Amino acid sequence: MPEAIGAASERLIIRPAQVSDLNEIQAIYALEVAEGTASFELTPPDLAEMTARWQAIRAADLPYLVAERAGQIAGYAYASPYRPRPAYRFSVENSVYVARAARGQAIGTVLLAMLIEQASLIGMRQMIAIIGDSANLASIRLHERAGFAPVGTLRSVGFKFERWLDTVIMQRALAPS
After folding, report:
1. Pick from 15, 121, 112, 32: nearest CA to 66
2. pTM for the model
């Protein structure tokens, strides 16, 4: 399933995440937790925790993708169960993270498009984006371009970096209702 995009020297490869990718995935996420507001976690999870999370996604038969360029992980995206109750089993939540050095290169766009495609192929019907911080315009625009519509904003529900943060909720149908 790997899909290559671009010239050979700068080829972006989108493929399923492997255990050997988890160090780079953990580093990308740790920086976002430590310095950003896209995640409301306060302490970066260690490699063991990130491995357990990756294994849970795999056990649920949901897609977990990486974007690789020149042997480096430039970003990753995955679909996770939206809620644990059985009635939600056809709805997933997406997560997309791009390495700081790779931002502005449409990597998030490519990852999210592939994630949507794969979630659709396995029978998912709705994808939900829970976007940390209503000022996270890059993520909001990424999701809008991918066909997500805003369905609500939860005001001041997270407290990080000594300030209150909103959560923006967006939704996209993957199949007809």
Report:
1. 15
2. 0.93
